[in-house]
Each structure stands twice: as C-alpha cells, then as structure tokens.
Amino acid sequence: MTKRFPEGFLWGTATSSFQVEMGRGSPSKDSDWWAWVHDDENIRRKIVSGDTPEDGPGSWELYEEDFRLAKKELGNNAIRISIDWARIFPNPTTGVEVEVTRDEHGDVSHVEVNEGGLRELQGLTDPEAVEGYREILQEAKRRELTVMLTLYHWPIPSWLHDPIACRDDVDSAPLRGWLDQRTIVEFAKYTAYAARAFGDLVDLYATINEARIVGQHGYLSDPPEFPPGLYSPEHFMTVLHHLSIAHVVSYDQVKRWDSTSTSDLGPATVGVVCVLQYFDPADPGNPRDVEAARFVEYLYNEWFLNSITKGDFDVNLDGTIEPHEQRPHMVRGCDFIGVNYYTRWLVKHAVKGGDPRFDYALGPGGGELTDSNWDVYPPGLRHVLNWAYDRYRRPIYVTENGITDSKDERRVGYLLDHLGQLHAAIEDGVPVLGYFHWSLMDNFEWSDGYKMRFGLYNVDRETKERTPTKAVPVYREIASSNTLPE
Ligand code: PNW
Fold it and tell me: 210 CA distance to ligand 1 centroid (A)?
C-alpha cells in the first residue's frame, strides 16, 4: 500500500550556521567553538580533528544555490537553518539594561527587554551580519520554503565563554558560558533582538538545539570532545538546568517581539529541538546495566523536556519532584517538539568514581555501524516519536535524521527505513508535521571536522561544488509526491 503523508507535511533539510556558512565571505571568529577548534593543544591531543570551519561549504555566500537545490532538486517545501549569535553580536551586550526577575531559588525566571533596550542592541550588532541573515531568509521565502530558524545551535560569543580557560581551570575562569546565569540574560537579549529583526521572515523558531548534547559532550565527556571538555556531573546538571531557563526566557522574547505572521502557521510558533535516543541495557540480564539504562534515558531524553513543559526541575535527580523542585512559574510554553533521531545506544555499568548514578558508559547498538560508528536502528524513531507524544502531547517535527556514509552506499536505505518508521508513528496517532534530513550537504561536523559526511550533497572543499548523492532523486520523489514508495 502506498504510504501517503498528511497534507501540508513539511519536507526539508537541516543545517546550522557554524557548520555551513564559512568557506566563502567573512568568517565568524568570535565564538567559543571557533576558539575550541583552532586551539593547538586541542589539536595536539586530538580532542578536535584539526579541520577548521573556514573550509566549510560557504553558504554565507552560496545560499541561493543551496535553496535552489532544496526547492528545485529536492522538491522540498521547508528548510531548517540557524543564525550565529557570535556573528550578530561580536561585542558584548552586557551593558544593555534589562529587568531581570529571579525566583526564590535565585534562578533567573524572567527577563524584560524594552524598546529602548532593543534600540541599544541594534546599535551593538554587526550590520553586515544582520543584513546577511536578512538576505538569506528573504531568499528562502522567495523560494517559498517554510523556514524553521534555530536560535542557538552551539557557538556562543567569546565574551561569554572562554572554553580554553574553562578546560584548564574552570573554577578560576572568568567567562564560564552556560555555567553562569549571565549567559541566560544575554541570550534573552539576543533572542529578543533576533525575533524583532528577522520575525517577518521566520515561520517556526527552535530556541535551543539539543541542550543535552551541549551538556553531555561538553561537561560529561571523557575524553573531552566539545567545549569546554570537562567531566563533571555537577557542571553537567548546572548547564542542563540553565539551558532549560534559556528556553523559557527566549520563548517569552520571541512571543513578545515577533508579532508578524509569515504563513498560515500563525505568528511566532516557538518550540525546542531535542535529540532523543533509544537506550537499551548492554546486558538485559544485568540489573546494573538495566538500572544505568533507565537512568540515562531519564537524564538524557526526559529531564529537559520535563522542566520546560511541566516545571519539574528534578535538581537531585531522584525521579520524584519535591515541592522545591516544582516550578510552575517556569512553564511558558513549547509549541512543538523537534526530535533529532540518529541512533540507539547500549548502556553499561562502568565505575567513574564520582556520583555513583553516573557510573555508566555508552556504546553503539548491535546493528550495522555508520562511518561515525553509530548503529542504524530505524524502529527507534517510531519509538521515540510515540514516547515524546505520549508524555508531552505536542506536535512534533523530526528536525534531524541522517547518516555518515562517505561511500554513498547506505543513505538511501537509511532514509527509506526511517521514513517508514515515521509513517508508522503517524498511523499510531502521533502528530508528526514534518521531516528535516540532516543534512543538505556535507559540512563541518564539530570536533570530527569534514571526515564525517552527512550530506545529501557532497561538497568539494576547494571549489565548493555540490554533487548529489544517490539519495537526492529518492528524496525528491518522496517530497514531491508526499508519499513513500512501496
Ligand atoms: C546533532 N550523539 O548533534 C547536531 O544537531 C548537528 O549539529 C550535528 O551535526 C548532527 O547531530 C550530527 O552529529 C549530535 O552522540 C551530536 O548521539 C552527537 C550525537 C547526536 C547528535
């Protein structure tokens, strides 16, 4: 039977600014991620690959070509991109006065940005960056692509985070990024400004991309991987908690400062993007593995969504919400959940020597492995979609899903199998409204650099030429017919 998708289903691809923009035009150098991937010691210790984003696909200038591919070659009706906070505000916004409300726990609970503040912020932007993003977004609209804009897809300005100083001695580092609630206040200013400056061109906003990965790979990774390369359950929890608050305050800003409607989706639809994974115990017969897998699922898939949708801030991670952990005042909204799904992980008990609940290690599942050693497990997508809808009752977009496949042998199968599972989830009753494949083209895969090729199009590092992989005609057929082949 032909599998048809609901009318109006969004078909797209996803990218992020730091991963695709550079390579043509002015680079964005004033971020923690820039510092991290250029740091000699990180390169020497192989924490990062040594590849750098200035060799990227160059979308800062080649965006017209990208959107042409998306619309004409892939038959897509949507696109997910991000804007780079550090490019827009290379200099501090800390001097702009706003009213900050804190709750009885001392946490930021609201940031009030006024018209005067927005004018001041405007004066602090890099005008070339703002103009550049307006042109990019205008081009997407001209191509009649529904735009999902991610506000935070990982780099933060250098004036808020010195990841090298934090790596070397986090306690004495002055610029501590998401460990510090000052970053939340500045994020509120940036998102208020972005909603005002770009709102007439944006259909859907994602406040934050994968809070958990920012925490896990930055603060719970051994060996180090993402900035600032620490292993500390305590810092991990602080960062997750602060990213929850960052969602909350930025949700307020976008709702307040973007009142224009660009499509029949209505003004300012604001959600969040989470990576949800399928976790299994490495040995289902070993109670410690079973317990570890349960804890990891709670911590990695559930904690953040519970905080922003229910106000459940389970600070002590015991799975029950005591009165001081109930924070209904933090529930502002989350209009959709963006689900990034790639793989399944096996969880094994492994002693780390700190908080015993964090005594675990993750390994790939038992299926065939991709270039990144991630296991291909399509049923996990149907599982996490049902899981997210059962718990949170929000419309869902699959905001990322894709495979590293340098030989171009398995992307077609990966795509078809995952879309089959997505369709099954819709038949289960899950309101999935769109699918964004990661990624439109090969790009800068963070600490792994260019070796990991997620693109539907391969990119030549020198000429920037985009060459289709075998999945391009397949995805075009699906997107333009809104059906999955038999
Ligand atoms: C996502 N994991 O990150 C990001 O949103 C993208 O920027 C990135 O390029 C893409 O997925 C591919 O990695 C992830 O360890 C990073 O399971 C790590 C994991 C998952 C997603």
Answer: 8
